[in-house]
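This part of the workshop introduces the protein records we will be handling. A record pairs a protein's sequence with a compact description of its fold. As an example, a complete record with its sequence and its structure tokens follows.

_____
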Amino acid sequence: TEYQRMNEAQDGKCKLCGRPEWTKMRRLAIDHCHETGKIRGLLCHHCNTGLGNFMDNAELLRAAIAYLEASA
């Protein structure tokens, strides 16, 4: 299946953080653009939820990065 092909291409690891899914009870999530429907890759639960919490908004993510870098 397409999922298996993507999973093999990513070596079973999240496309963002590079870790395998943190529990065997879950599979990597199929991440997609909510505007276009285009599949971007497979993400672990934490990364997928993180993007969702930031509403896939690149400006908001950049603001979060600036915030983290300024407070380091």
Remarks:
- The two ends are 43 Å apart (CA to CA).
- Residues 24 and 44 are 11 Å apart (CA to CA).
